């Protein structure tokens, strides 16, 4: 029986941990994160799964601390796996497993290496993304690829909807890769890093809307940041506007900058390129903004972003 140490968090962490268990891998230790009370915890708990299966679990602030490395080394694992774990693992940890360390990344590597790859893919209007299992080294997301699976990004998919597809793809990629990894004959294909780039993490303030962007770009931006994420926003004369759900809806006369209007019983965002978005869900100054209350809330014919 193969033995593994697992660093994991989030839904991908839960599903991939269960895939290991389902394939008969002995998980000697799970390393995960303490949930941040200031974060919207909308995803499943790796800690709970570990407890359900009687697997030892730790939540160190620094996974590379000497005492953590020593504990991982003492497990004498064949494999180390990282499934959406948020900290970089340094060389002593990566070298602690006899047969290698492997990471599941939420993109079609080498594209969108780095942080929050699904959100970045939606922001950039990609039509597909996926999950990639690759061997780890000290540089993020650039080791040889074992396997990957693509999923479609539909024109109106939110990042959350795409994340659900990528979670299933990650489970399937790991499930079908494990026999080869255990047997020692899994492919390891070097990445051509020139075909992709590295992207950093995102903060709530990064959701500020570019009022000069095209309708297509604003639509992609809004759906990439909608719930459970902090949202795409603009500070307007009537307060902070949050766009939670939009649909592309043809064209109109170009606006000098994006502005929100009400017509035909609906909210519309007229964009600088002449494109128009139907606004299906929005919030203004902390309260829902609808076609019915637009005039009273905005006190104008249009609200500039």
UniProtKB/TrEMBL annotation:
Q: Organism's domain of life?
A: Bacteria
Any coiled-coil ranges, and where? none
UniProt xrefs under InterPro entries: Formyl_trans_C, Formyl_transf_N, Formyl_transf_N_sf, Formyl_transferase-like_C_sf
Query: The Formyl transferase N-terminal domain covers which part of the protein?
Result: 24-174
Residue ranges of every copy of the Formyl transferase C-terminal domain listed in the record: 203-295
NCBIfam families assigned to the protein according to its UniProt record, in alphabetical order? PRK06988.1
Name under which the protein is recorded: Formyltransferase
Q: Which organism is it from?
A: Chromobacterium piscinae
